[in-house]
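Record filed here:
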Amino acid sequence: MLSEIKNYQAIAAEKRAQQWDKIPKDWRVPTERFHNATNVMDIPLTCGLLNETESRITSNYDATALLEKLKAGVWSVEQVTVAFCKRAAIAQQLTNCLTEIFFDDAIERAKKLDLEYPPKSRGKALPPLFGLPISLKDSFQVCGYDTSTGLGCYVGKPAEDNSALAAMLIDLGAILYCKTNLPQSIMTGDSDNNVFGRTLNPRNKLLTAGGSTGGEGALLALRGSILGVGTDIGGSIRVPSVCNGIYGFRPSVGLVPHGGVRDLTPPGTDGVRSTAGPMSTSLRDCSLFLKSILQADTWMYDSTSISVPWKDLQPRHKLRIGVAPHDGVYTPSPPVRRGLKQALDLLRGNNDIQIIPVNLPDVKLHCRDLVSYFALSGSHHYYEQFARTSEPVVPSLQAIGLLSVPGTSLQGFFDLNVRRAEAAKTYLKLFRDLDLDAILMPPAPHTALPLDCWTKATYTGLWNYLDHPAIVIPVDQVRDIDSADDLSNAKFGPDDEQLYSLYTGPEQYKDAPVCIQVVGYRHKDEALIKAAAVLDSIINKI
């Protein structure tokens, strides 16, 4: 048994061999087709493995449109499931984005759904997510499969039950078919671990695919999935969305069932909590996911869920959008500044949008406290898990410095909570005094970075600290006009200069996506999605 093997290298070798065996031989891509390519985005459609129907199913629709086709009986659930399993297998070979592969179970479930609801006689009484393939981050338990989170000590210990969300998605009619890669500790901006290895960015393999839900990001970019689910405690949905040029929504904590998700922080250290949310190829798919969840009985699946109803809200006629051009800690790089300006120019040209300048108070202090929450008991718990199979610390975890942060006393924990409550009041007042519908800002001071260099998450982490929902929207990619400029443009001190210096110009950052972030009120997630949809329709002319 894998669980009896103590060294992580032997565990990893056996686990990867199992992965490879689960990819059918006629779904394997000859390595010469992609080995030297930096950008592999075109390989799924040029490798010759997808037939015309599979190419159309996986390329031409977002989840909302595909769901309509499934419910109309245009294709069988089996056809759609096989198409996405095959494309996910291709994505895995190109980027190493998958962990657990259960294509056979997915196809078997698809056949059963087709028998229960024959394609030519499908009525209106279909489950909300009928036949829709959905991928999951590795940390979600799926019955019968490991929830290793890339740690050797948890390999060979399959889950006995589904996580709350996996169970709910199955009941809503979805097809679960794979889980995706993440970093050692689930806390870094590079999805790299000692069991599965590193996930590569399909747009530029020299840049990170992001973390901690980076496998999901790469899979979605290659359309091996069009709707996936990640978790976010400091930016883990939004960072990979930036790196891979997809939509990623961080809901308020508790709205989406989170029970049965493996977090690697010590049990009982309940400070800033992780939240589960969608990653997709369109904004309306984030809305589809959230609506489907909130209209169901989340309380039946997870005792910690917060049942906020979906109200089919309409955004008010004239949206008031606060704009924060930076967070006061790190200066946005040239392509990020251009992307934000490009979005703002389009919004200012619309009579239904009012732009209000905003300064974000005390971000540096709040993000320092966020890190303290992450390390409430120090690093012993992490090291103990690594030591069980003699695992070394991966470079990205070493780089962020989390393992060197000292633990906090009980009084220190109380003090953190007091400061966090005051910060929440301050930011609510900021939103209310300016009568804002949302705040628009960069999701990071940079695009995807070279490997193991994503060490700061103030632009995303602030909203985890405050528990405000936030969504990433792609708007462009690095262009030839995005020249590197002088370090004097870094406004906020030596740390800012160091981070700013990483942008060397468009050559190194070729094809890196440029995104914006839209932030709303806590527990007003539906209102945020509706407002963000208006902005997306203007910016991306959808």
About this structure: The CA atoms of residues 355 and 415 lie 36 Å apart. Residues 410-433 form the longest helix (24 residues). The two ends are 52 Å apart (CA to CA).
